[in-house]
Design brief:
Elements (H helix, E strand, L loop, with lengths): L1 E6 L2 H5 L8 E5 L2 H10 L9 E3 H8 L1 H4 L1 H17 L9 H16 L13 H13 L3 H11 L4 H9 L5 E5 L6 H12 L3 E7 L4 H10 L5 E3 L14 H7 L10 E6 L2 H10 L5 E5 L2 H8 L10 H8 L4 E3 L2 E3 L2 H8 L5 E4 L2 E4 L4 H6 L10 H23 L2 H4 L3 H7 L17 H18 L6 E3 H14 L1 H6 L6 H12 L6 E3 H13 L9 E3 L3 H4 L7 E5 L3 H10 L9 H8 L7 H16 L1 H15 L3 E7 L10 H10 L5 E3 H7 L36 H9 L9 H15 L6 H9 L8 H9 L10 E4 L2 E4 L3 H5 L11 H7 L5 H13 L26 H5 L1
Parallel strand pairs: 1-5, 1-6, 2-3, 2-4, 4-5, 7-17, 7-18, 8-15, 8-16, 16-17
Antiparallel strand pairs: 9-10, 11-12, 13-14, 19-20
Helix pairs in contact: 5-25, 6-10, 10-29, 11-30, 15-25, 18-21, 22-24, 28-29
Length: 850
Amino acid sequence: MFRVEIHDNSYEYFSKIDLEENAFHITSNLSLEKLIKENNKNPSYVWKVKNITHLLENIYPNLHDLLNNNRLKIDLRDILIKNEVHESLMKEENIKILFSDYIFLIQSGIRQIPTIENISKEQEVIINIFNQFVQKGSVQEIIKELSSAANLKNKYTEVINENIKTIYLYNFNNLYLSRMVFFTRLKYLGYEVVFRIPQLNIENIDEPWKKLYSKKYFMWDESKYIKYNPLEKSTYTDYIQGLEVKDDNKDIVFKEFLGSFEFKNELKHNKDKSISYYALDTNLINQVFDIDEEKEQHMPLIKFMTNIYTPKFKDSDIYLNYSLLTELLTSGWIEIKEGNRIINGIDHLDFIKNLESYFEGLEDIESILNRIEDLRNLKLASDTMENKVKQKIIKNKVKRYLSNPFRCISYVNVENYDITIVQFKSLIERLRYILRNILKREDEFVEYNKNTIFLKSILEKNIFINELREDEEYKPIIDKIYKALEYKHDIDIIYKEDVKELTRILLSKNSEEETHKVLPIDTIDGDWQRKVYDEIHITDLSFKSYQKYLESRKTIGKYINHKFINKILNTNMYKDKEELKKCLEIAKLSVNNTEQFFSFDISNLIVNYKGKIVLSYIQNLRDGDSESILLRVLKNLYQREHNIENTLLDYLDNIEIEENKKEPLIITNDILNKHRVISPVGYRDLDFCYTKFIYSNILESNVIYESDFHHKLLFSTIISLLKRDIPNYEDNIKRFLFPLFPQWNETTKENMVMTNLKNLQLKEYYLYENINFPKNIDRLQILMSKYIVTEKYKVKNRYEENKLDTEKLFKEFSTNYLNNNELYNPGRHCTMCPHILICDKGEYPVERDN
């Protein structure tokens, strides 16, 4: 039996722990390790305190080595493939779970599973695969490390020291099987193993500790129980006991964040304050809030090395979508040389994103290259329209727009960028060359060692990356890439997902330990006692995060459970099965009491912590989520008007607003003569919104639409303009115009022709300086914007009557603009505006519906 010592006041107890000469102290988490070390200033005793995670990593380095784990997973996948297991077991997520389960069994002392009667076919497969897995040389090395009789004692004494007689274990409420097996081994090595656990002397709250450390398996040493000052009662503990609830005046505040952006602002605003943040589901929280584009793993150069294994190689072509193509092209790895000029995709993200809607739906590089030819044909058709009046247009962008309706479409204006369509095509061909060399096989495997040699040769020739290496900020990152490419594997053919994981490990190796802004809730019991935080903030107290937390504490995946392990131990395979069964029963108790242990931690915090406690919920973090029951209970007990904080108002209060007027979109001195360079159709915007007029006609020479929705409306409008003036209208539209817009299927385009009831005149002209342009192209300016009774019609009427006085209209506009009047006019027309995403007053359809 293990001995158990109890204490009734954590705050007092941990401040007085004596690090005896012949004792070693193992804590359940890092925060308790820090607490004990901080309370014992003698540096010569620091080695005596270790948290369980770091201790096991020291004792079993091969077991916890990430590269070694990657190698073990490769072996497991190889066995699964050779055994032709069901495809569901081959899913990446399930392989990870199965691998974790197998390692758990090995750590728990189970090294072979005999035949078991009355089990499912799936369990038979799991047993068969496990027995093959443990025979692998890489796994045998792990087993040897865990159980070698000759070296095991030395393994412990390397970490713990030879003169240690007693090992104290602090606050372990998660005694899963492999951990209990480890503690049992310590006992058999001759150490006295003593568990030290907290109590609040409140029966309902202390219950999980009494259940887990049952006197059936543990010996409670009452002689070591030292009572400290009695604890103050709290409202929450009264509630738990079913007593009359009285206000305890604890400093507890409740916050509700409208979304992730609000919580991120809270973190940013409080970064220099003495606040510690905790959550139940830290994986999601730190994914959402801790992503920083400056972090190495998010840099395009780094991401390229894993992204290259995402496309598929099939029928001599590379299959990937345009979004992934964009990431790869703009990573910095893809460059071409044209004369004396180096063209690298990283410099042309705007150009590539501008073409996104035109390449919608394509899934392979050959199709993307063919689509580039379609784009060249569209550009040729566009240029042909302008060439007819080339002498009159010269380089005037307004005249070019009035002569060519295609200029409204974003991807037609490719000459606005410092790259040509031909150069873009060459970049894609360069990418295809690299991917064909990387993904030579049509299955999901790659030749890893050959790939690293090839990638290193690409890296050495890349001028952009090697010039970047001269920068002190980027040199360590690029050096790390070179070092990762030096790694040689003992297996040549490796599954792509395993290569991705291996690459991530190599690129993160020797990095500084990542520190998250939000910590796991299980570490809170040490932090609140350390006197380093003025405030403890527990966030994401939602129903779903709580359920996920409970699930995560089970420690075993979906293929192995306690019942299955019990069946293994009921065979005659293991001599120490009774000891293992006892450990298994304790592990079950640990899992079954997870909820009660969480309640104890909250009680301990509320009773003992002297600072401010903040409890919060983040809306819209998960679909269909709500506040947890615990948060609702605590709100009912503690919520008062003074301790409810409006997070949005708090955030707005912290924003510094300048006294001066908002800086105008255009400079006053530049506005006076602008009317001379604005097209007549541009004034149609004044009937709807001054801001659109500014964006489309002053800051730019003409309106340009970027969304696929607007492009379809433009296509339909162009059809309307051509309708009356083209012989065999439908046939010629299909023959000449349809091929220029291949991103839409034929049915979509035919529907636009069939349902187009507008009948606009193309040959009714309007004079602008020295060119005549089709009067009805004003429809491209406003698209389907509707005029509403009681709203402005002035410009529309004057335009249609050929009585447009642009100088007068512009003077009226400039007067209002300079006086900051009527700049915004949100309404239904906002749907037709290409600037709605950057307009802070724009109205979305969903807002109208609400």
